From TrEMBL:
It comes from Aquitalea aquatica. The keyword tRNA processing does not apply. Residues 11-63 form the HTH lysR-type domain. This is LysR family transcriptional regulator. One of its GO terms (biological process) is DNA-templated transcription. InterPro entries: LysR-type_TF_proteobact-type, LysR_HTH_N, LysR_subst-bd, WH-like_DNA-bd_sf, WH_DNA-bd_sf. The lineage of its organism: Bacteria, Pseudomonadati, Pseudomonadota, Betaproteobacteria, Neisseriales. SUPFAM superfamilies: Periplasmic binding protein-like II, Winged helix' DNA-binding domain. Keywords: DNA-binding, Transcription, Transcription regulation. The keyword Nucleotide-binding does not apply. GO terms for molecular function: DNA-binding transcription factor activity; sequence-specific DNA binding. Belongs to the LysR transcriptional regulatory family. It holds the Pfam family LysR_substrate.
Length: 288
């Protein structure tokens, strides 16, 4: 039968006492009580049935057997510490937050491919309804957001530009020959500001913008409403690939698009050179 090995805590206590020559100093270094360190040394001596230290008024001195064990224990603990560092590097994680629509329509379909590009790094994601980068909570490493890339104190790595173009049901598109035909349709907005449609209309529309509007609180809801035939939404083809591929939605004016914003991976400025975040930027650019 294989004899059980001593605990690593006992070996740590032994090496500390051997190096410092004192139970009290070893206890302070290890953040343990002196009594606990003393018991761990006694347990080691009982385990090996040898005296490891010679006790004297000047301190603790290694016996010949103790000197031999010190060499072995020091190497073993160093090897275990090295493996711990290796294991922690292999099991890195990135805590990422992104808007729910972007998560559902762009990020999650690419997550398996992203993990293949980042072996050893686990991506932990959470979603929000906001595109405003906020690192007031310390549990986030980065955020994937839409905006202009200018946020004070933050580093923003640009991933891809936004291209917004009208999307609607195929049967509705049959009545749309020129942008002016949109005046008689219901326009679907992804937020209350209605800015995206206003920008698009200023660039391509004629006359006054359509009078009928439906306002949602997310792009996901706006795209869904358009797919159900409730009107015409402005969407980015990257975020509506499934509905465009299935024919639920079409783009009657595919060449007419606006793009005031872009998507960025944002992180606190001190983290811009983090190896794992640099790798994440490279991987996301590959999949964009």
């Amino acid at each position: 039968m294989t004899k059980p090995l001593p605990s690593t805590m006992g070996l740590q206590a032994f090496v500390a006492v051997a190096q410092l020559g004192s139970l009290s100093r070893a206890a302070a270094q290890l953040y343990r009580t002196q009594g606990a360190v003393s018991r761990q040394i006694q347990q080691l001596e009982q385990h090996y049935q040898v005296v490891l230290f010679q006790r004297s008024a000047t301190g603790m001195h290694l016996s010949p057997e103790g000197e031999q064990l010190q060499q072995i224990a020091t190497r073993a603990l160093a090897d275990l510490a090295a493996f711990s560092r290796f294991a922690s590097q292999q099991q890195q994680s990135i805590r990422l937050r992104l808007p729910s629509t972007l998560a559902l329509r762009w990020f999650l379909p690419r997550l398996d491919s992203l993990q293949q590009l980042l072996p050893g790094i686990r991506i932990d994601i959470s979603t929000s309804i906001s595109d405003t980068p906020d690192f007031s909570r310390s549990d986030l490493d980065a955020m994937l957001v839409r905006g202009n890339g200018q946020w004070h104190g933050l580093h923003a790595a640009r991933l891809f530009a936004e291209h917004l173009t009208p999307m609607c049901r195929p049967e509705m598109a049959l009545t749309l020959r020129v942008p002016a035909d949109l005046q008689h349709q219901c326009l679907i907005h992804a937020d209350a500001s209605q800015q995206e449609w206003q920008y698009w209309w200023q660039q391509y529309g004629t006359g006054t913008m359509a009078a009928r509007h439906v306002v949602f609180d997310s792009l996901e809801s706006a795209i869904g409403a358009a797919a159900l035939g409730y009107g015409i939404a402005l969407g980015d083809p990257r975020l509506a690939q499934d509905k465009l591929a299935s024919g639920e939605l079409v783009m009657p004016f595919a060449d007419l698009h606006t793009g005031e914003q872009a998507y960025f991976l944002v992180m606190p400025e001190p983290s811009r050179n983090s190896p794992k975040l640099c790798d994440l930027v490279t991987a996301l650019l590959t999949l964009s």
